[in-house]
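Pilot study result, target chain (190 residues):
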Amino acid sequence: MPEARSQNSSDMPHVLESRDRYRPCHVVLSDTGERMPAIQFDGNYYSFFRSVAEKQRALELGYKLQSRGHSAVVTKTPKGFVVWVFEATAILAKPRANITKSAKPDSPYRVLTSPSDYQPCQIMVPDLDKRLSAVQYNSKLYSLFKTVDTLQQASQIIKRLSYRGDETIILQTKDGFSLFILEPEAVRAD
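Predicted structure:
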């Protein structure tokens, strides 16, 4: 679908609107050793740069990155668009998971069973005017999506969310299993 662009179209980032074109993953940046959310596209790794609500803003960010010598791609998500930046020396990170015994070892989700693993909090996200219940885990903020009774129910929902590109965690609590979704642009509000 053609876009109205003021910049040269060869300088614009690829827009990947179908998840069939890329694979979500995590990479380790060789210069810092930092583990980052990423995608694999055309055999290359692109680390998370920024999430925005509007396609035009994502294209502007991608163009700015490319004009500074960085290759960028844009993906569509349920909440908007994500800008990813090429990482020439990144390596694929091994999965990091704290999975309960009731989950299969190859499960694509994390189940946090100890309250010491996370910190409950309130967050604000750019596209909403209200505070959201959330947790902070590994320096990232995750908003509460839903609480269900069983791990099986949670894993089915998590698989659907992961397919859409959302990074998720599950907390095992006295009320059941609470599903949380990563909010890259969130700020703590408590």
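One observation from the pilot: Residues 1-7, 97-107 have pLDDT under 50 and may be disordered. A full batch analysis is planned for the follow-on phase.
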